[in-house]
Write a structure and sequence with these properties.
With 196 residues, the chain is of the alpha/beta class. The protein contains five helices and eleven strands. Strands 3-2-1-6-9-10-11 form a seven-stranded mixed β-sheet, sandwiched between helices. Strands 4-5 form a two-stranded antiparallel sheet.
């Protein structure tokens, strides 16, 4: 299949997945986020993590704020992404969730203003996506930020796709450069991807 055909299939998949997410009420998203976090806190991959990369959720993504609070309370190194004015995604240390530790990045997203940290320092990486498949395939927002990040990680890093259950499809169109995740977490639980 040509790259153009795969990209078209991805656009169609993104559209359908966004419709599914839009059907969730704010209350449903909040409840699902809390359940996802509860499941994640019980996993060995979370409990043994020494360097954690999370993300500040957009309105259509599960909130990971409770995971961030847990990481900070345990003294685990925590960082989140920031989009710089030159278009690069950097990873910034988070030492507090107080408002003065955050500002708006180049994409208009609330982001940490801490020091930049190298991706190799993280052994747990939460990966957002518009959709995931049981084999670890992921469709993001189309900018490639996380594909580039995941390709640069050491093999010891654990990658976890974060999504609502309605964002899981049996299959997703992928291209050779599309990175897969090792685990997927939703409000229904955390499961290991069947990487193929």
């Amino acid at each position: 299949m040509s790259c153009e055909s795969i990209q078209l299939l991805k656009r169609v998949a993104r559209g359908g997945l966004r419709e599914r997410i839009a059907e969730l009420s704010a209350t449903q998203r909040t409840t699902a986020s809390a359940a996802l976090v509860t499941h994640m806190l019980r996993t060995e991959v979370w409990q043994r993590a020494t360097g954690v990369l999370l993300f500040r959720a957009l309105d259509d993504e599960p909130s990971l704020d409770a995971l961030a609070r847990d990481a900070l309370a345990r003294g685990t190194m925590l960082a989140m992404p920031r989009i710089e004015t030159d278009g690069r995604m950097t990873l910034r240390r988070v030492e507090s969730l107080r408002e003065d530790a955050w500002d708006i990045d180049a994409c208009g997203i609330q982001s940490p203003n801490g020091v930049e940290i190298d991706a190799a320092q993280f052994d747990f990486i939460a990966v957002p996506g518009v959709g995931f498949a049981p084999d670890g395939a992921r469709v993001g927002r189309g900018k490639g930020y996380y594909d580039r990040l995941l390709a640069s990680l050491p093999n010891e890093s654990t990658t976890v796709g974060i999504a609502f259950a309605c964002q899981i499809l049996n299959r997703l169109p992928t291209e050779p450069h599309d990175a897969r995740v090792q685990w997927i977490a939703t409000e229904d639980g955390v499961f290991r991807a069947s990487l193929t």
